[in-house]
Amino acid sequence: MTELELIERASKGDERAFRTLYDANVDRIYRLAYRMAGEEDLAKDFTQEAFLRAYQRLDQFRGDAAFSTWLHSIAVSVALNGLRKVDRHRKRERSLEDAAHVSPGNPPVEPGVRERIDGAVNDLPEIYRMVFLMHDLEGYSHGEIAATLGVAEGTSKARLSRARAKLREALGDAMQEYV
Amino acid sequence: MSEKPVDEMVDVVRDTYHVPGETPAEAIWEGVQQGMRAAPDEGVTDLTVERMKRSIRVSRPVAWSVAAAALLVLGVGVGRMTSPGATLAPVANASSDATTGLRFAAAEHFGRTESLLTMVRSDVRQGRVDSMTGTWARGLLVQTRLLLDARAGDDPAMRELLEDIELVLAQVVGLAERGVMDGDRTHNELEFELALRGVEERELLPRLQAAGRLLGLSGT
After folding, report:
1. Which chain B residues touch A81 with a CB distance below 8 Å?
2. Which of A19, A95, A112, B137 has the most neighbouring CB atoms within 10 Å?
3. Closest of A61, A73, A83, A78 to residue A146, by C-alpha
4. Is the same domain home to B60 and B27?
5. How many residue contacts between A and B have a Cβ separation below 8 Å?
6. CATH number, domain A1-90
7. pLDDT tens-digit profile of A102-145?
8. Could you tell me the residue ranges of all domains in chain A?
């Protein structure tokens, strides 16, 4: 069954069809949400909300972009909106203990280095941070990023370049011994 | 660090920053499934429709007038700041004339930018954008770059503030233009979120207010 057929069936309430679409995309969506949020519970909430919103809007999917791209646009929007609400209650900076607790995949890194990396990435303007997370940390192509964020590929490349420059400036010699 | 290849820095960040564990796919699916079986979402407003309604209410001549007025004021400020023969007011020397012009132009600019961003923030929270916003923001973006190119950019704190303003205004311009040209609701929502986060994460409004007070021209 093609993706469009699955979408058509899902839009008519076929749960199994939507589950197939879910299985094909949930891992990438969750990973991106986690990179953005840094907390498992938030990443789960954002992923769930993204799929739910996509399901509710399936009739609006025009098919002029891949379903995955459309879904990613929704997911990024949901995560940004959710993080804005969360940030009203707490800043992204957290203690080393918290960071270790909420990042199950983190390998051991010296405390000072992790804090500097977290701070440097968190301090990136969101439009740079998004491209950096998607391209450098999660391996999205500039074409995918451009389609997801609704910008030109050149804009994606320029933002990545600015993000890397800012990180290099912010991290300075902090990682000399790690690279 | 600068002599190290970028890829090596990226590798360290990739293995350190918000590293996801295994995807809890079944747990997430349970939540999705419950939502699918619940009532359909009725709380999402149609941003495109809202935008079109508001766009109709603002005439193009008014928008251009605002932009023209903004540029005229900047021209006076920057002119005083940069022209060696400026004689608009008695001054002790060229340096103090330039400083006065700079303060005037910068304070005026910060005040207008603060007004725009306050309006944008309000609009974004209501899920819409006014068609005049793009023209207004574009004028301010030009002014920001002029100030950056002028001596305002010599002061590190001022430069940082102006660069942050430039970044957010560029987003607002893009947002407003897309608001008129692009009916893609998902992308519009995404741009709204990015713009709003830009304003909030850079703490632009309080910084603009503080800068205005520092220059002694706040509220003019």
Report:
1. 193
2. B137
3. A73
4. no
5. 162
6. 1.10.1740.10
7. 455 555 567 788 889 999 999 998 889 999 999 999 999 999 99
8. 1-90, 106-179
